[in-house]
Specification:
The chain is an alpha/beta fold and 399 residues long. 32% of the residues lie in helices and 23% in strands. The protein has 2 domains: 203 residues, Quinone Oxidoreductase, Chain A, domain 1 (Alpha-Beta Complex); 153 residues, 3-Layer(aba) Sandwich (Rossmann fold). The structure holds NADP nicotinamide-adenine-dinucleotide phosphate.
């Protein structure tokens, strides 16, 4: 029995029960009034026009490991039912993030034990929703969202986790987590001033591309590290003044020679030796923002060792600072950041480069099973822009 039939049957049964009670107690003739019945409202759902199967596929972490293929399995499960304040979303695109393997390794919340659902973000259409959620959302609406369990064909999300978007285009997905991270970290911790030098590591990736563009908009001089000539060309195209392909150039030597006064702000995502190099190149009063340390994520500890004995002296002598940034700590500012980012994206002031895997050995990332390939692809350093996986839905949707 499909979920629609099930819910429809539940609703009909409920209505018949109400009718019987009313008839029995002569309530039929009573003037109409609203029924305040919370148990009923929590079962109310709008499936208008949707065609929803009874089962779906989703990715579940069954064993803790930073090796995504070892940790995660593809399962067939019932399509979940939204509660009162929830949306049931049919995913069209899901976003791949470097931290998908931190999550599968249980590093986010060590108290959570497998099995748990994988994936942080997606974009799709609302296909059913609870009564409270229907105050703000409607069936057929395009939404992007951040929340656990995104690697699934359908996902139930509290409506507060969702954001209405003009259409189901993956560019909006790129803004959601990657764009917001660059925007909020640079705004809160960067204190960018016109003419300052900003170094972005993993600059051609999902979040790096936004850091480059936002620093340029703040009229800074932007330096970006990357691993190929193609990425360096892309960085030029989005305004990066000095792309450094670390496969062919010595980053440290370039920085020493071309930026003798140092770098004012670093947007640092790689960790390990690149972090050490970034610390060494800080200008007086320089600010290094720790966005991540991807070079360590695949190891058992999740960290790449660094030599930190001299760190206090290095920072003191330059009045420099290092600060960490974690997006969930900035949710109070998230809505206004997204408003700004969406506006910039619509006006063409910020571009969202997407990598859908066209150039990967097995081609475009299509379907949930290709999430595994997409994670491997990112970890081989081949992605240019935000990695997204498209989900195909064989159902004959009317939406
Ligand atoms: N703090 C937060 O709230 C937050 C939010 C979002 C993302 N992040 C962080 O931002 C960073 C980028 O994440 P993303 O999802 O946007 O990924 P991404 O930049 O799209 O992809 C990762 C890129 O990292 C570079 N890289 C350098 N060393 C690497 C290594 N040893 N292994 C694999 N890749 C390496 C590669 O580019 P090159 O080969 O060109 O160097 C690769 O393309 C990560 O550190 C992530 O944890 C943090």
């Amino acid at each position: 029995m499909s979920i629609v039939t099930l819910v429809f049957r539940k609703t009909i049964t409920r209505r018949l029960q109400i009718k019987k009670t009313r008839a029995g107690s002569q309530l039929f003739s009573a003037p109409s009034r609203s029924i305040i019945d919370m148990s009923y409202s929590s079962h109310f759902m709008d499936f208008k026009g949707s065609s929803i199967p009874s089962t779906m596929r989703k990715l579940v972490v069954t064993k803790l490991s930073p090796n995504f293929r070892e940790a995660v399995s593809l399962q067939t499960v019932p399509v979940p039912t939204p509660g009162d304040g929830d949306l049931l979303i049919r995913n069209r695109f899901v976003g791949i993030n470097a931290s998908d393997i931190n999550y599968s390794a249980g590093r986010y919340d060590p108290s959570v034990k497998p099995p748990f659902a994988a994936g942080f973000e997606g974009i799709g259409e609302v296909v059913a929703l609870g009564l409270s959620a229907s105050a703000t959302y409607a069936v057929g609406q395009s939404v992007a969202y951040m929340g656990d369990g995104a690697f699934a064909e359908y996902v139930v999300m509290p409506d507060r986790n969702a954001l209405p978007v003009p259409s189901i285009e993956p560019k909006y997905l790129a803004l959601l987590l990657s764009g917001a991270t660059a925007y909020l970290s640079l705004k809160n911790l960067g204190s960018l001033t016109e003419g300052e030098n900003v170094l972005v590591t993993a600059a051609a990736g999902g979040t790096g591309q936004f850091a480059v563009q936002l620093a340029k908009r703040a009229k800074c001089h932007v330096i970006g590290t990357c691993s190929s000539e193609e990425k360096a060309g892309f960085l030029k195209s989005i305004g990066c003044d000095r792309p450094i392909n670390y496969k062919t150039e010595d980053v440290s030597a370039v920085l020493r020679k071309e930026y003798p006064g140092g770098v004012d702000v670093v947007y640092e995502s790689v960790g390990g030796s690149l972090f050490e190099m970034a610390v060494n190149c800080l200008a007086n009063k320089g600010r290094l923002i720790i966005i991540g340390f991807i070079s360590g994520y695949q190891s058992a500890s999740g960290l790449k060792p660094i030599r930190a004995e001299a760190l206090p002296a290095k920072l003191l002598l330059k009045s420099a600072s290092i600060r960490g940034f974690f997006l969930p700590h900035y949710y109070s500012e998230y809505a206004s950041a997204m408003k700004d980012l969406l506006e910039m994206c619509e006006n063409g002031d910020v571009s969202c480069e997407l990598d859908t895997g066209e150039l990967s050995p097995e081609g475009r990332f299509l379907g949930l099973d290709s999430v595994f390939r997409a994670v491997d692809y990112m970890y081989s350093g081949r992605n240019l822009g935000k990695v997204v996986v498209e989900l195909c839905h064989p159902v004959s949707s009317k939406l």
